[in-house]
Amino acid sequence: MGVLKDTGQIEYSRGLEGVIAALSSISAIDGTQGKLIYRGIPIEALAKYSTYEETSYLLLYGELPTKENLEKFEREMRELRNLPEKVEECLKELPPDPHPMDILKVAVAHAALYDPDRQRACREGVMRKVIRIIAQIPTIIAYYHRTRSGKEVVPPDPELGHAANFLYMLHGKRPDEEEAKIFDVALILHAEHGLNASTFAAMVTASTLSDINSAIVSAIGALKGPLHGGANERVLKMLDEIGSADKAEEYVHNALKEKRRIMGFGHRVYKTYDPRARILKEYAEYLSNKYNDRKYIEIGEKIEEIMIRELGKKGIFPNVDFYSGIVYHFLGIPRDLFTPVFAMARSVGWAAHVCEYTQNNRIFRPRAYYIGPEYVEYNPIEQRR
Ligand code: ACO
């Protein structure tokens, strides 16, 4: 019999912490300084000067586009927003109560069946599929939401950019420039973040030489979980549960005593303030003042103060999910769409990593360290109790 148990020195990293699983030039995180760059450009500069479309181009193609290339990319994104008729019909038939992340998973898989580039494995074909997925996800989310709310669907407006068009399809009216800009920044901040769980899920699927659509569906499934993208909607639920800033201290103390996690805090890589949360906090503050409704921001800031005081020494700080919900709330985005909106933004990061990794592909196949018994005799069913 061969060796069933590992002998000698083994390296085991729970949750793959610190394991380098790929080479990448897409983004980098400095978890101690709280810095994030996309293709070398600081996230703060992209938030200030770029657009989601331009940032997507940067992530996918490795450099900022020329004016001409950006126009071509934007045009392509706008042209590919419409859903296949069958998918539209299906969205109308789906039950109104599943979590919209489940709807997104189903609809992205469904749309792939009608993708005219489905059979094209060349780089151009894959890029076309990628742009189509990025362009269609907002339409899926908005269509489903309008349908489940008993409202007429609003077709995409080719005059509007990616962020503004989503708000338009969701609400049935064009957002003002400021709202569109704030939402655009939120999308930029969520567009990419290295080998997080959902991106890694996409890469694992793609590494078997499956297709890009299957990889994105895997990623959507991984993003849904409350330890990842699903945290943002739970943050607002928590703020509602707390009710007012003066109750935050008691809530956090009880939660920590009962070993419950405070959603929107902590990160595998950041051991300091997440730079994306810093920008989103400014917008949350701005919108709370603009609408003269400071309830959520005041509770949020109080929780932040307590958490940093109690757990800052452990490296627990607000992450991207903590303030995004307050921003989305003021943009009129329903709570259960927060995570689908995250998926809408992150789809480009997923695709960029899949394209990069599969250029020099090797199937992902880690091992588990076997800790079970080495030999157990088979016991016939009649003799088992
Ligand atoms: N609240 C309270 N304590 C926390 C939190 C939190 N949010 N996050 C981590 N801790 C504590 C843990 O209890 C643990 O303490 P211990 O060492 O005394 O046991 C320590 O910090 C380390 O926690 P791990 O779970 O080992 O950290 P890990 O890197 O595995 O997990 C994660 C990171 C999942 C993000 C975690 O911080 C968490 O659960 N946060 C809440 C959910 C959340 O906000 N997720 C969104 C993350 S950002 C994103 O995915 C977009």
List keywords for this structure.
385 residues, mainly alpha, Citrate Synthase, domain 1, Cytochrome p450-Terp, domain 2, 2 domains, 3-stranded antiparallel beta sheet, 16 helices, 3 strands, globular, binds acetyl coenzyme *A
Q: Concise description?
A:
With 385 residues, this protein is mostly helical. It is built from 16 helices and three strands.
Reported CATH architecture of the largest domain: Orthogonal Bundle
CATH superfamily of the largest domain: Citrate Synthase, domain 1
The largest beta-sheet arranges its strands as 1-2-3
Count the DSSP helices: 16
Strand content: under 5%
Q: What is the N-to-C succession of helices and strands?
A: EEEHHHHHHHHHHHHHHHH
Share of helical residues: 55-70%
Q: Shape from CA axes?
A: globular
Bound molecules: acetyl coenzyme *A
Main sheet specs: 3 strands, antiparallel
- CATH T-level fold name of the largest domain: Citrate Synthase, domain 1
List the SSEs and their pairings.
Blueprint (H helix, E strand, L loop, with lengths): L26 E4 L4 E4 L2 E2 H7 L2 H10 L5 H13 L5 H9 L6 H14 L9 H26 L13 H10 L5 H14 L6 H10 L5 H12 L7 H12 L5 H10 L17 H16 L4 H17 L8 H11 L7 H22 L26
Helix pairs in contact: 1-8, 2-16, 3-6, 4-5, 5-6, 5-10, 6-7, 6-16, 7-8, 8-15, 8-16, 9-10, 9-16, 10-16, 11-15, 13-15
